[in-house]
Design a protein that fits this description.
The complex is a heterodimer.
Chain A (H helix, E strand, L loop, with lengths): L1 H21 L2 H9 L6 E7 L5 H15 L2 E7 L1 H14 L6 E4 L4 H6 L7 H6 L3 H4 L4 H6 L2 E2 L2 E2 L2 E2 L6 E5 H4 L2 H11 L9 H15 L12 H14 L17 H13 L12 H9 L5 E4 L2 H6 L21 E4 L13 E4 L6 H12 L1 H7 L12 H5 L1 H4 L5 H14 L9 H17 L3 H19 L1 H12 L8
Parallel strand pairs in A: 1-2, 1-3
Antiparallel strand pairs in A: 3-10, 4-5, 6-10, 7-8, 7-9
Helix pairs in contact in A: 2-16, 12-13, 12-21, 21-22
Chain B lengths: L1 H46 L2 E2 L4 E2 L6 H8 L1 H33 L5 H13 L2 H12 L5 H10 L11 H29 L3 H9 L4 H29 L3 H6 L11 H11 L3 H25 L5
Antiparallel strand pairs in B: 1-2
Classes of the chains: A alpha+beta, B mainly alpha.
């Protein structure tokens, strides 16, 4: 009898363990979160379209599953870092969960604003699911000093979108080859980008220009960082920590950016996200370099949604090709990681919410929300049959994003990074104002040096060495 | 005991009678000190510490922040930009306001309506005014370039908020548009109160309109005009919203005012103690300027 009892008990235990193991990270988060039913957690999210995810989809669903209300605090990207740090300094406990741009993470960790997530990850069995986040994001945008402070939640990167109908037109192909001696195709180098851009502008302007891109200073940091590194540039001399952004690669980068404006629409210097998007969707430009949503909306995916009523109806669906930007190593521009505020009074509930959001199961749904701006970041996102069938060219789109993620370049992330970025933003605006390139970059390098001296050369060298040692810091 | 008590009571009563006025204003003074002076003292205190993004060092750090002020070229440039804008905008606002006030002194048809419409810009929040002008100056969709295009006969794509030749005119246009009505309103009120018998007598004596204005109207409105200039001068010294909305201080730092620089240092870069030192520098400069101006204008008397 005892033997039988032992066997039955063993079977029951084994079955329970199997069930627990089979339970997904999302389910575990939901089950554990039910103990906090009736409470409310807040989450800082980028204002605008990004926030529609927690407002329309994930927030209400989480409340339905767990009874926990989600208060979404919308903050413009440019103010997120400031607000997070201010609230932390003031100790208000106003924020529970956070969206954090990964390059800010070292600064926020140094300021003590982020909660270490490792104990929660182990407690709620999330470690194995973290492994299916692409290595580029997982290895570079999750930890500081070996500890987890955020879950990479957005596969941001810049890719090149081009009008394949124009590129594959027989007349254009013949004329381009006659003029430049090589076949027209997605540009591999910045020189080819300029050749193609100028070719289309010469032929079609003002109805269509060769290219158009973001030019506002806020985007300058990413534009410069991407092209500079693809041109062979390095940000610092690792021994002396003197800035080297004013070397020949820096000058070539800035001069190239300015020269490219010649084949872009007049006034491109003032372009931001919306200007570039609308021009591309309306068929006014042949090429652009931008984040992944451009590709989805150009194909017409989800643009009937009310939230996207401001997006011009695409006139180029089915005519768009996808490629990595010239140089082949795209900027992993911005991105978001999900974190928990160290001053939150609801850390456990906040953690469970971000585990659920970031989980394999829920994130797969979130990256396909037509109105949200989350982009694929897990292996399964790129291979999901449903996503692959969203539009005819979706497989090519996802494949380009996947290649871009592997080859992508991390945003520079060192101590007090926003101060260094501020210098680049100013340099970009001076570039469009027409100042001499070498002067702008010499000034910028001098300001970087002054910042490094003030922060401490040794401290900054250590931070830079850590960052530069990452496989995606510079092109392979 | 009762004599003592009575003596003490009468002394208290005498004290109360003598100092009643002070007792009445004491709560107001205390509140003023608490809300007016305390932040100043706190700012001063923080400026002698070393609080920034990375550390909260509240120990006394001497004149560290003030020494940095003097070697910070960007700070002095931003001060220069602020003074430049003030030096151009203030006279324009004064002259335009004065001319409008003179015009509206006459009983024009629809005067009330026009005055109300002209004053509208001052009721708009400066950041909204800046954003509106940004749209108006937009190189693609803004009506200003379109109108210029009609006039010149070819499309215009002037980058008002980007190119160095245009950023200051753009800022000044927005600033003057918003605040000239303020000057106009105050001067109109002042001029309406000028004794008309004096101006009529001067007219009968054959004085020219310019002479009447210089000898009768101007002295009469001088005190009000001085206050209006002082208010606008202080406002321009703190100029932030319109410039932020139009250029964010760019290109580079070409239009960065001292308020924008202080905002960037304090709220973007978290140089808390350094920003406190900037704030105190500004307070000292403004206090000295105002006292000097008042003394020059014999206002203290």
């Amino acid at each position: 009898m005892k033997m039988l009892t032992a066997i039955i008990s063993g079977v029951i235990l084994a079955a329970t363990a199997t069930t627990a193991a089979a339970q997904s990270a999302a389910d575990r988060a939901v089950e554990a979160a039910k103990q906090f039913a009736g409470s409310e957690i807040s989450i800082v999210w980028e204002a605008g379209l990004q926030s529609l995810d927690p407002l329309n989809f994930s927030g209400p669903r989480w409340e339905e599953l767990t009874g926990i209300k989600v208060k979404v605090i919308e903050v413009p990207t440019s103010e997120m870092f400031t607000k997070i740090l201010q609230e932390h300094r003031a100790g208000t406990g106003a924020y529970d969960a956070l969206n954090v741009i990964p390059s800010w993470m070292p600064d926020l960790v140094n300021a003590g604003a982020l909660e270490v997530l490792d104990p929660y990850v182990d407690k709620y069995g999330y470690r194995s699911e973290l492994d299916s986040i692409l290595a580029t994001y997982r290895d570079n945008q999750m930890k500081v000093d070996g500890k987890i402070y955020g879950f990479p939640d957005d596969g941001d990167l810049f890719i090149l979108y081009y009008r394949k109908d124009l590129f594959e037109d027989a007349t254009n192909m013949a004329e381009f080859k006659a003029k430049h001696g090589y076949d027209i195709g997605p540009p591999q180098t910045w020189e080819e980008y300029a050749d193609i851009g100028q070719f289309f502008t010469d032929k079609f302007a003002p109805e269509l220009y060769g290219a158009g891109q973001f030019r506002q200073p806020a985007y300058g940091i990413w534009l410069f960082e991407e092209r500079f590194r693809n041109t062979g540039g390095r940000f610092f001399d690792p021994d002396t920590m003197r800035a080297t952004i004013n070397d020949s690669a820096g000058v070539a980068t800035f001069e190239g950016m300015r020269n490219d404006n010649a084949f872009m629409p007049p006034g491109v210097e003032s372009w931001g996200f919306v200007e570039a998007l609308s021009s591309f969707l309306l068929g006014d430009i042949a090429m652009t370099i931008s984040w992944p949503p451009f590709g989805r909306w150009a194909a017409g995916y989800g643009t009937d949604d009310d939230a996207l009523s401001w997006v011009p109806k695409t006139t180029i669906a089915g005519k768009v090709g996808y490629a990595l930007p010239p140089g082949g190593s795209p900027q992993l521009a911005a991105g978001f990681s999900l974190s928990v505020s160290s001053s939150s009074p609801n850390k456990e509930a906040a953690y469970l919410f971000i585990q659920w959001l970031n989980s394999e199961e829920i994130s797969l749904q979130r990256v396909q929300l037509p109105y949200a701006l989350r982009d694929p970041f897990r292996e399964s996102h790129f291979t999901d049959p449903e996503y692959l069938s969203r539009w005819d060219d979706a497989p090519a789109y996802l494949q380009t994003l996947r290649e871009g993620a592997d080859a992508g370049l991390l945003d520079l992330s060192i101590l007090q990074i926003d101060k260094y970025e501020e210098v680049l933003r100013q340099a970009t605006s001076r570039l469009w104002a027409g100042e001499e390139v070498q002067t702008i970059l010499d000034d910028a390098a001098a300001q970087w040096d002054a910042l490094t001296d003030r922060i401490g050369v040794d401290k900054q060298r250590a931070a830079y060495s850590d960052w530069a040692a990452k496989p995606n810091a510079y092109p392979k | 005991m009762s004599i003592l008590a009575s003596d003490g009571g009468s002394r208290l009563s005498r004290f109360s009678d003598r100092n009643f006025k002070y007792l009445v204003v004491a709560p107001a003074i205390l509140i003023l000190l608490l809300f007016g002076i305390f932040p100043l003292i706190y700012t001063l205190l923080v400026s002698f510490q070393n609080i920034n993004m990375m550390e909260t060092d509240t120990s006394f750090s001497g004149l560290l922040q003030y020494r940095l002020l003097f070697s910070d070229a960007r700070l002095w440039q931003s001060l220069g930009h602020t003074l430049l804008i003030a030096a151009i905008a203030l006279p324009i606002e004064l002259i335009a306001g004065l001319l409008m006030a003179i015009l509206f002194l006459e009983r024009l048809p629809g005067r009330q309506l026009f005055v109300s419409l002209l004053v509208l810009p001052t009721m708009i929040a400066p950041i909204v005014a800046g954003a509106t002008w940004r749209l108006l100056f937009d190189n693609r969709f803004g009506p200003i370039n379109q109108v210029l295009g009609w006039i010149t006969g070819e499309p215009q794509a002037i980058l008002w908020t980007i190119k160095p030749d245009y950023v200051y005119p753009a800022i000044l246009i927005a600033e003057v548009w918003q605040w000239t009505p303020f000057m106009f309103l105050i001067l109109l009120a002042a001029m309406s109160n000028v004794d008309s018998s004096l101006t009529e007598a001067a007219e009968i004596d054959g004085a020219s309109p310019l002479r009447i204005f210089r000898r009768i109207v101007l002295p009469a409105i001088w005190p009000v005009m001085t206050i209006a200039l002082l208010i606008r001068g202080l406002d321009l010294f703190r100029l932030f919203d319109v410039v932020w909305a139009l250029t964010q201080g760019g290109p580079g730092t070409m239009t960065e005012t001292i308020s924008i620089y202080a905002y960037i240092q304090g709220f973007r870069q978290f140089e808390t103690s350094y920003t406190a030192a900037i704030a105190f520098l500004v307070i000292i400069m403004l206090t000295v300027s105002v006292m000097f101006a008042l003394k020059r204008m014999e206002f203290v008397r």
